[in-house]
Each structure stands twice: as C-alpha cells, then as structure tokens.
Amino acid sequence: MGGGGGTEAFPDLGRHCQNSDCNQLDFLPFNCDNCNKVFCLEHRSHKSHNCPKPDHNSRKVIVCETCSTAIETTGQDEKLLMEKHMSSGNCDPRNKKKPTCPVKRCKEILTFSNTSTCKTCQIKVCLKHRFPADHLCRDRQPPAAVKASNGGRRWNEKFLVALGSRSGKDCGKNGSGSSGSPSNSNPSIKAC
C-alpha cells in the first residue's frame, strides 16, 4: 500500500504517512504546503520530514554580529545575505551600541524581554524602574500638588491626631505580655 489509505472495509478512509521510515495509517493526515505530500502528526512539520522545499510562509531573521542589524532571510541563503550586507557599507561596528536604561546610574541594557514603556511619559526603562516614582516620571504630580489635594495636612499629622483621639480601651492589649510580669529587657512602644 503506497500513499493510499484506508482499511479493507473502508478503503477511502485515512492516508498513509509518506515519510519513508513511517508509513503509518493516519485518519487525520496533514498535507505539506511545500512538497504536497501527506504526513502523520509526528512528521507534519517541515523539519521533521526533511522537506526539500524551503518554507515560503515563515520569516527568519539573522542578526549581524558586527553592527547588530537584523536581516530577513526568508527563503534565501544566509551566508550570501550576510556577505551582501557586509559589502553594502551599511555594516558599521559603531552602530553596535545597545540602548541602556535612562535612569541616572542605571547601566541595565534594554532588551526585548526586560524593557518597559512608561504609560505616563512614554520613556523606555528597565523593569527595575518601570514605576513612575522609580524613574522620576516628568508627568507625575509635584509634591506641592499632592499637599494641596489632601488639604495641606501631611499623612503623619493625620495619623498622630487620630492616635491622640483614641482612648486607652481601644487598644488590643493593655497588659505587658503573656508571662504577667513586666520585662525591662525588651522595651516596647505602646500607642496607649
């Protein structure tokens, strides 16, 4: 039985894998877009069945080690493209400098996986400085605007006023601890 398929009872059901080492009867076969042969699940990819024609739908990119330029190689010889790029005059080693985080004293190189763009100021920073407070975001509210928004009173002043207004019975523990005797070796700060 060659490329046909099926069983004795159902001769038109399924197809045999056309990989020379497999020949498995598959009831849900895959057709290769490039070589138009039929394959089973295991041999459906171009790489697994050693497809003689390159994959025309995929996009492959190589990166020049001299200037860090990405070169698309879809269906073309990589060595030939690299030689063409080197001789074109566009390959300059001075262009290899990688972008770094703009925050003062941060030397983190920005890559695809560790770059974050601030939603407020649109600056690209490393993950460590992704929050507006960490990279001195220029569109943040200045401290004077924050003071005005909470009535001119700082948060710790509000806390102290609230703490002073509490009576002693509001506190959780009025005792000195679980042993019953006061311990002078570990002084504690009590709010009550």
The residue ranges in which pLDDT falls below 50 over 5 or more consecutive positions are: 142-149, 174-183
Indicate the radius of gyration in whole angstroms: 35 Å
CATH superfamily of one domain: AN1-like Zinc finger
Q: Counting H and I runs of at least 4 residues, what is the number of helices?
A: 3
Describe the largest sheet.
Answer: 2 strands, antiparallel
Name the average pLDDT: 75
State the shape: flat
Topology pattern, helix = H, strand = E: EEEEEEHEEHH
Number of strands: 8
Q: What distance lies between the first and last C-alpha atoms, to the nearest angstrom?
A: 92 Å
At CATH's second level, what is the architecture of one domain?
A: Irregular
Q: Write out the strand line-up for the largest beta sheet, numbering strands in chain order.
A: 1-2
Proportion of beta-strand residues: 5-15%
Helix proportion of residues, in percent? 10-25%
The name CATH uses for the topology of one domain is Zf-an1 domain
Please identify the structural class as seen in this structure. Answer: little secondary structure
In CATH's first tier, which class of one domain applies? Few Secondary Structures
Condensed summary:
Residues 11-59, 95-145 form the AN1-type domain. This is AN1-type domain-containing protein. The protein has three helices and eight strands; from the N terminus they run E-E-E-E-E-E-H-E-E-H-H.
